[in-house]
What does this fold into?
Amino acid sequence: MRFKIDENLPAKLATRVCTLGHHAETVTSEGLAGIDDAALVAITLQEDRVLVTLDKGIANLRRFPSGSHAGIVLLRPGSVGRRAVAEFAMSRFSRILGMELRSRLTVVSTTQMRVR
It folds into this structure.
């Protein structure tokens, strides 16, 4: 599976995804930092990459309904701060990879993972 890691997540998450046998790029490394949400979703659809983000705006089902994107994984950690977010994402990513992510919104919180 192919992923794009949003700028609001640590770049080392892309490395973690790659060590798990998948391909990942970061928004920042591709010079897309600050890009409009709609443009970013369009790029990920064109590249057939699942977007991993903390941005609740991108997870708006009215704006980006299922099927209009390649897949969105919204991470909702219970704590803030780069280290806490990185630990949250890293600890859940193996399980996330076992889910059907294509064209769906997957919300990952501290207590559950749900697909919409």
